[in-house]
Specification:
Layout: H1 3-28, H2 50-54, H3 75-103, H4 114-126, H5 131-143, H6 155-166, E1 170-173, E2 176-181, E3 186-192, H7 197-200, E4 208-212, E5 236-242, E6 250-255, E7 257-260, E8 266-269, E9 276-279
Antiparallel strand pairs: 1-7, 2-3, 3-4, 4-5, 5-6, 8-9
């Protein structure tokens, strides 16, 4: 083998070695390719962070505030006025019962068991009543004594009576003051007003008014409806009257007039004596 041939082979070998070295060097550089540790793009793992923010959406759970609806418990509030009214009725009842029990003119209560009567009406009140029913019941309770001189008046009736006594009101009527007899179904005239239609027609104290235009002044509950005699001045009405002498009932036609509410005090002398009677309505 010639010298040049050996030299060429040596160069080829060296060249191959250099190439392999270069190749290994080149191939080695890619190993740092692990730099794709830039796969630290796991920053995408931050994407889970938005998902927790999405859990903020559960804020709609605030809708449970709709449970405020149960505030419709206010029905309980409406019960308090009823309770207060019931307490007031029982108090009025007790005051009335005590007044009769202490001051009634007959110690035996006109031969009635006043305690038993009170127990009966107390139970009725406890069962529940309107004001109108309560006032009617109190009048019925006193009426059980069978005493025509004792009665109970509701506040509105008391106000009307006081105004009438003081002459503070005027109304269209016939000019009479009456008292009711619930068990007998009629009213009796106590006083006739001077210059009133009743007196002008000849009606007198103790005459009984059985009906007004065919209607009784006392209803099935024993309530007095004297308003049937009232109306516009100039309007007419027919009274069915019976005198205390037992004569047959008669109809009397009257025309209402304006009546001054002041109740007159009636009086009269007993002929041939020095005795006088004075009637003071109370």
């Amino acid at each position: 083998m010639s010298r040049w041939t050996k030299l060429s082979l040596l160069l080829v070998a060296l060249t191959g070695l250099a190439c392999s070295t270069v190749m290994t060097a080149l191939s080695g550089t890619p190993t740092p390719q692990p730099s794709p540790t830039l796969t630290a793009t796991p920053s995408a793992t931050f994407s889970p962070s938005p998902s927790p923010s999405a859990t903020i959406a559960p804020t709609p759970t605030a809708f449970p505030t709709l449970t405020l609806a149960p505030t419709f418990t206010p029905p309980a509030i409406s019960a308090t006025p009823d309770a207060a009214a019931q307490k007031r009725r029982l108090r009025v009842f007790q005051q009335l019962w005590d007044a009769v029990n202490t001051h009634y003119v007959y110690p035996d209560f006109n031969e009635h068991d006043w305690k038993a009567i009170g127990d009966k009406y107390r139970a009725m009140i406890a069962a529940g009543q309107s004001d109108e029913e309560f006032y009617r019941a109190m009048d019925d309770m006193v009426a059980e004594l069978g005493d025509e001189h004792s009665s109970f008046e509701a506040p509105a009736d008391v106000a009307d009576t006081n105004n009438a006594m003081a002459g503070e009101n005027t109304y269209g009527g016939i000019g009479v003051l009456v008292t009711g007899h619930p068990k007998k179904g009629y009213v009796s005239i106590i006083v006739t007003f001077e210059d009133g239609p009743a007196r002008a027609a000849g009606l007198r104290p103790h005459d009984r008014i059985l009906a007004v235009d065919g209607l009784s002044l006392v209803d099935a509950n024993g309530d007095l409806h004297s308003e049937l005699m009232r109306g516009e001045p100039g309007s007419s009405l027919t009274l069915t009257i019976q005198s205390p002498d037992g004569s047959a009932p008669r109809d009397v036609r009257l025309t209402r007039a304006e009546i001054n509410g002041a109740v007159p005090i009636d009086y009269w002398l007993v002929p041939g004596t020095h005795i006088a009677y004075l009637l003071i309505p109370t």
